Amino acid sequence: AQTVTQSQPEMSVQEAETVTLSCTYDTSESDYYLFWYKQPPSRQMILVIRQEAYKQQNATENRFSVNFQKAAKSFSLKISDSQLGDAAMYFCAYRSPYSGGGADGLTFGKGTHLIIQP
Amino acid sequence: DAGVIQSPRHEVTEMGQEVTLRCKPISGHDYLFWYRQTMMRGLELLIYFNNNVPIDDSGMPEDRFSAKMPNASFSTLKIQPSEPRDSAVYFCASSQVWNTEAFFGQGTRLTVV
């Protein structure tokens, strides 16, 4: 079974600064999908960014980018020019490419609580 | 599309009562997932459906939990009888195919007293 580890329960950053959230995972599969989800106080789970393991290029969505290191099984999220609205819980998630046997669901890390200081 | 719609948003019930949570997935999505979120255990997959058929319910904690998907636009998660330890946020999510991201509803916060 795959596992996802987020080693930072909480991170704090000054507004307009850059912050990096860490995520590592364990899998024996060579192809898979990785995601970062944001959960603000409204508790809605919002997709931030996705990465396909077969793609070498790191995904980018505006101020959000990832550093995907497949050999190290690492998938960190960088938030540039942090804004107050970025304050939330951030979850790293893994999804197997294979259908069936429970593999279709997302496996989540425990989350990182991001605090933005004005 | 309005996204994944869950109801109710909040539910408070007494121990022993039956609770039914409802979900309407995004139209055209073939996969529907039920997750539970607690502080202690984080986000756990309870059960998922593919084309209305339950594929894996190994995450359902015990026989008190059951889920159905009578058609492509509706699913329910039922707890009978409910217990205080069932208190959590329950999310429904859907995805178009198996290799895409899942879209989540706003969740139902269940409190069993």
Main β-sheet description of chain A: 6 strands, mixed
Mean pLDDT of chain A: 92
Provide the structure class of chain B: mainly beta
Number of strands of chain B: 11
Any idea what the shape of chain A is?
Answer: globular
The biggest sheet of chain B amounts to: 7 strands, mixed
What share of residues of chain B is helical? under 10%
Helix segment count of chain A? 0
H-E order of chain B: EEEEEEEEEEE
What is the chains' assembly state?
Answer: heterodimer
What does this protein look like?
The complex is a heterodimer of chains A (118) and B (113). Chain A has 118 residues and is mainly β. Chain A is built from no helices and twelve strands. In chain A, the strands form three sheets. In chain A, strands 2, 5, 6, 10, 11 and 12 form a six-stranded mixed beta sheet that branches. In chain A, strands 3-9-8-7 form a four-stranded antiparallel beta sheet, with no helix packed on it. In chain A, strand 7 and strand 8 (64-69) form a beta hairpin. Chain B has 113 residues and is mostly beta strands. Helix content of chain B is 0%, strand content 55%. The N and C termini of chain B lie far apart (36 Å). The relative contact order of chain B is 0.34. The mean pLDDT of chain B is 94. Classes of the chains: A mainly beta (118), B mainly beta (113). The A-B interface holds A 33, 35, 37, 42-47, 50, 91, 95, 97-102, 104-111 and B 31, 33, 35, 42-43, 45, 48, 50, 55-56, 58-59, 89, 91, 93, 98-99, 101-104, 106-107, 109.
Structure summary:
The complex is a heterodimer of chains A (118) and B (113). Chain A is an all-beta fold and 118 residues long.
Offer a few descriptive terms:
heterodimer, A: 118 residues, mainly beta, six-stranded mixed sheet, 12 strands, globular, B: 113 residues, seven-stranded mixed sheet, 0% helix
